[in-house]
């Protein structure tokens, strides 16, 4: 089977400005969402307690809500169904520090008249731990961006590094915007997902850039837009196919992976789509707008090749003893 | 082209290695060997708490309490030393971690100075006339706090080991936190018992009743009691019964050498028999000898268990705690006493407790996702690329086994996010093969020979795959270094997956192509590479 057979080069860069407008709009909307609605920090970062309860049969949510509302210790706690009809979770901002008591004992006592149930999960994070985790998460993100810029600058050129980071920030902003829009609990696995998007987005961009790097050497036109168009067209099949396989896999995670990693796989779904889009429509145009000059690059390369050859010649002469 | 090229050989070895070392993990064979004995089924992956159920807690130690009790035991020891020298003193009090007392006979002053200098070297002593005050130095406070944390780690580990659970983990994390992981807890009752066992201070004290003022205890406030150097404690069974006790104990659990569960002669109730060391037995004997007719309370964790009248001197250092124990409680309390008191109470900073049924659900869900995800990728590759897809799938399967094998060898823990990492790796590992196959197709379309298309295809694809993998790897390694718990597991599987894919997807498939090259029918490119071309391929 072959889907991407066309030999015709698609002029991606012609519409770059229009598409760029779309990207900027999405980023702005995401930022607005992040600043107005904000991220819904889960207990990993905000601290608090989650208790997941499974009933035999249908969970009496209303009754549980009433009971929880009457308990002063659980002020402001929410009760929602979780995955199936028989399960519910109680989320509260409080975090009991007691080793032997704690939420499990309390909830068991509180709900003892609501039917037969099993407490399947208790997650509790104290506020101090949450702060530390948030700091570490941000640190991890910054450090990996720095490491990647350094690597790409070394392997490509600084403009490539900048362009890929612009695409990266674009992707992460939009993914976080989606998290804010749907008010998904931001917990540690979400952080892992965001960092995976970071890796994935770069992965995609690097593969396109690799082709552009190759194109600069092999494509005759000295115009960067032409080089980009041809290179992107050539990687289009790969970009789409890989995104599709990854998308499928993440989709199965989302559908079958269970309620707990739902947020994680949702974030990845958004990331895969945005990451694919940005490697073509964000990273490449930015590279063009950063005024990457093909001619200059070739001159430089030719010069360094010449130097290299000269050196070799000198060495050869030296070895032959003619100097 | 040589049939047995080195790439195929390496790939075959990697594949075999993957299968052999992932078998113990896949079967999760349960060795019934005791600790220390070599296991018959090899190293395997441990399932994380989210997959097998269990309790994870991050504890912190209230180390300032250790400082307080250090001061208190210094008070005990001052009292003992002064009484031994028959020095008359009054107003021995502890306030704000400062011990003060007044010597009544001025002639004793030089003797007191000498005792303090000899016995309490690390303490800052100041003297104001006949009033002495002692205070811990900052160094000693820091040391005491550190000891309290280290001791808590050891004590909790001992207790959990004695409780008889499979592989609990107790480790110090950072400067002042303790990580406790107890996998495989089956019921809520068990979990509660374990929590109680961890939390139990097991702080045992023998305290004398202040008989002179004891009659007024019910009307006395805590503040008033403190003025007399006393403390009011409740009875363990009936919290309306209160005792007025001298706050400086006669002796404490540090002098205990053994504790066992026993049964009372008269009522067959569970009780705890414990034994004091030589010094403890002597202090206990001396005290009971001179306090006949008075009461002495056995206090565990600030609750009075018994307060019998002393009938005669008790030598030998054998003491019992009776009280309303169930046999289970007595068992757990004895463990706690044997493993020593916690110098300071612990509290939970964060915890995660997963019931066994939820763990099972998590395993099933993630395995289902893995299978569906894997199959959809495999089918897609065959449909789209024909035989080239089949070859890629070989690499994919080998990759999966390699991830499992490497994780088994490191005895890594597989968590739910780790499973997600494996699923994700399946999607990403196939990327390398997509890039390679696309390159080969491109070259075939240009009319290159089969050999050239394959060799050149791998060459062209290599830099892209390499750079892309390294960038992802950088992100994964940073995640591993900075992440905790679930994130570590996720980044570990991703990292291993990327490294393994370099061997399987690049080296392995290349070798297979070279091996199969003579057999590839140049007229059936549709079957081999899933393409149609009008050009003649050599």
What does this structure look like?
- The complex is a heterodimer of chains A (323) and B (538).
- By secondary structure, chain A is α+β, with helices and mostly antiparallel strands.
- Chain A has helices spanning 16-36, 43-46, 61-70, 102-110, 127-155, 158-181, 188-218, 224-256, 262-289, 294-320, and strands at residues 40-41, 48-55, 78-82, 84-92, 117-125, 185-186.
- Chain A has a 4-stranded antiparallel sheet with strand order 3-4-2-5. A two-stranded parallel sheet of chain A has the order 1-6.
- Chain B has 538 residues and is an alpha+beta fold.
- In chain B, 52% of the residues lie in helices and 19% in strands.
- In chain B, strands 11-10-16-15-9-12 form a 6-stranded mixed sheet. A 4-stranded antiparallel sheet of chain B has the order 7-8-2-18.
- At the A-B interface, helix 4, strand 5, helix 5, helix 7 and helix 8 of A face strand 2, helix 6, strand 18, helix 10 and helix 12 of B.
> What name goes with the CATH superfamily of the largest domain in chain B?
Multidrug efflux transporter AcrB transmembrane domain
CATH architecture descriptor name of the largest domain in chain A: Up-down Bundle
Q: Poorly predicted ranges of chain B (pLDDT <50, ≥5 residues)?
A: 31-38
Radius of gyration of chain A: 27 Å
SSE arrangement:
The complex is a heterodimer of chains A (323) and B (538).
Chain A: H1 16-36, E1 40-41, H2 43-46, E2 48-55, H3 61-70, E3 78-82, E4 84-92, H4 102-110, E5 117-125, H5 127-155, H6 158-181, E6 185-186, H7 188-218, H8 224-256, H9 262-289, H10 294-320
Parallel strand pairs in A: 1-6
Antiparallel strand pairs in A: 2-4, 2-5, 3-4
Helix pairs in contact in A: 1-6, 1-9, 5-6, 5-7, 6-7, 6-9, 7-8, 7-9, 8-9
Chain B: H1 6-27, E1 46-47, H2 49-52, E2 54-61, H3 63-84, E3 89-95, E4 98-103, H4 109-119, E5 123-128, E6 131-136, H5 138-163, E7 169-173, E8 177-183, H6 188-199, E9 204-208, H7 222-227, E10 230-235, E11 242-246, E12 251-252, E13 256-263, E14 270-276, H8 278-290, E15 296-300, E16 303-306, E17 318-321, H9 327-338, E18 346-354, H10 356-385, H11 387-409, E19 413-414, H12 416-445, H13 450-482, H14 485-516, H15 525-529
Parallel strand pairs in B: 1-19, 10-16
Antiparallel strand pairs in B: 2-8, 2-18, 3-4, 4-6, 5-6, 7-8, 9-12, 9-15, 10-11, 13-14, 14-17, 15-16
Helix pairs in contact in B: 1-11, 1-14, 3-5, 5-9, 10-11, 10-12, 11-12, 11-14, 12-13, 12-14, 13-14
């Amino acid at each position: 089977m072959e889907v991407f057979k066309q030999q015709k080069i698609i002029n991606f860069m012609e519409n770059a400005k229009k598409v760029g407008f779309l990207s900027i709009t999405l980023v702005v909307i995401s930022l607005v969402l992040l600043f107005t609605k904000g991220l819904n920090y889960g207990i990993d970062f905000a601290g608090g307690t989650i208790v997941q309860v499974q009933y035999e049969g249908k969970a009496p949510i209303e009754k549980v809500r009433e009971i929880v509302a009457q308990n002063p210790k659980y002020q402001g706690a929410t009760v929602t169904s979780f995955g199936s009809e028989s399960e519910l979770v109680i989320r509260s901002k409080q975090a009991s520090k007691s080793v032997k008591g704690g939420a499990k004992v309390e909830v068991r006592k509180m709900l003892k008249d609501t039917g037969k149930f099993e407490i399947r999960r208790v997650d509790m994070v104290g506020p101090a731990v949450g702060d530390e985790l948030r700091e570490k998460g941000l640190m991890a993100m910054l450090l990996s961006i720095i490491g990647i810029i350094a690597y790409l600058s070394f392997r490509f050129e600084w403009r490539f590094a900048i362009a890929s980071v612009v695409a990266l920030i674009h992707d992460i902003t939009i993914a976080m915007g989606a998290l804010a829009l749907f008010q998904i609990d931001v917990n540690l696995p979400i952080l892992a997902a965001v960092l995976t998007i970071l890796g994935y987005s770069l992965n995609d961009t690097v593969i396109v850039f690799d082709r552009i790097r190759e194109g600069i050497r092999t494509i005759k036109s000295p115009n960067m837009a032409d080089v980009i168009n041809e290179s992107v067209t050539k990687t289009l099949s790969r970009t789409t196919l890989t995104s599709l396989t990854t998308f499928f896999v993440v989709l199965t995670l989302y559908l079958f992976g269970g309620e707990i990693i739902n947020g994680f796989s949702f974030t990845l779904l958004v990331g895969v789509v945005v990451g694919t889009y940005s490697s073509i429509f964000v990273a490449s145009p930015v590279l063009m707008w950063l005024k990457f000059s093909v001619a200059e690059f070739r001159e430089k390369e030719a010069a360094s090749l010449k130097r290299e050859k000269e050196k070799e010649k000198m060495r050869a002469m030296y070895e032959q003893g003619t100097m | 082209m040589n049939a047995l090229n080195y790439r195929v050989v390496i790939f075959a070895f990697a594949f075999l290695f993957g299968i052999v070392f992932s078998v113990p993990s896949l079967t999760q064979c349960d060795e019934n060997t005791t600790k220390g004995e070599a296991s018959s089924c090899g190293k395997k992956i441990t399932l994380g708490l989210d997959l097998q159920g269990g309790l994870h807690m991050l504890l912190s130690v209230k180390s300032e309490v250790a400082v307080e009790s250090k001061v208190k035991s210094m008070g005990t020891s001052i009292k003992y030393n002064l009484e031994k020298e028959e020095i008359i003193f009054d107003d021995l009090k502890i306030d704000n971690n400062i011990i003060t007392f007044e010597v009544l006979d001025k002639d004793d002053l030089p003797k007191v100075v000498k005792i303090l200098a000899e016995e309490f070297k690390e303490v800052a002593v100041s003297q104001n006339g006949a009033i002495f005050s002692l205070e811990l130095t900052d160094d000693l406070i820091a040391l005491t706090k550190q000891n309290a944390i280290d001791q808590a780690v050891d004590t909790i580990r001992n207790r959990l080991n004695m409780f008889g659970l499979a592989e609990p983990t107790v480790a110090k994390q950072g400067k002042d936190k303790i990580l406790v992981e107890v996998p495989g807890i089956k019921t809520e009752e068990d979990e509660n018992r374990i929590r109680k066992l961890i939390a139990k201070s097991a702080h045992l004290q023998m305290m004398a009743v202040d008989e002179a003022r004891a009659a007024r205890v019910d009307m006395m406030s805590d503040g008033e009691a403190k003025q007399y150097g006393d403390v009011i404690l409740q009875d363990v069974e009936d919290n309306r019964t209160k005792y007025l006790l001298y706050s400086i104990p006669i002796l404490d659990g540090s002098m205990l050498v053994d504790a066992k569960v026993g049964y009372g002669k008269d009522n067959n109730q569970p009780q705890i028999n414990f034994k004091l060391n030589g010094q403890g037995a002597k202090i206990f004997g001396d005290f009971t000898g001179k306090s006949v007719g008075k009461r002495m309370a056995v206090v565990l964790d600030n609750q009075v268990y018994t307060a019998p009248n002393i009938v005669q001197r008790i030598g030998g250092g054998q003491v019992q705690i009776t009280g309303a124990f169930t046999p289970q409680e007595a068992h757990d309390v004895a463990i706690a006493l044997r493993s020593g008191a916690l110098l300071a109470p612990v509290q939970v900073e964060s915890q995660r407790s997963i019931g066994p049924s939820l763990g099972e659900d998590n395993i099933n869900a993630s395995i289902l996702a893995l299978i569906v995800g894997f199959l959809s990728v495999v089918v897609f590759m065959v449909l789209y690329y024909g035989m080239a897809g089949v070859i890629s799938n070989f690499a994919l399967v080998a990759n999966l086994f390699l991830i499992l094998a490497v994780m088994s060898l490191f005895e890594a823990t597989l968590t739910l996010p780790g499973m997600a990492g494996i699923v994700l790796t399946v999607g990403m590992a196939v990327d390398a093969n997509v890039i390679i196959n696309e390159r080969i197709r491109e070259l075939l379309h240009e009319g290159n020979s089969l050999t050239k298309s394959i060799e050149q295809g791998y060459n062209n694809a290599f830099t892209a795959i390499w750079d892309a993998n390294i960038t992802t790897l950088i992100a994964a390694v940073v995640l591993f270094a900075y992440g905790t718990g679930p994130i570590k597991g996720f980044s570990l599987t991703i990292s291993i997956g990327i490294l393994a894919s370099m061997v399987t997807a690049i080296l392995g498939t290349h070798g297979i192509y070279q091996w199969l090259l003579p057999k590839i029918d140049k007229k059936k490119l549709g079957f081999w590479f899933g393409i149609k071309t009008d050009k003649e391929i050599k």
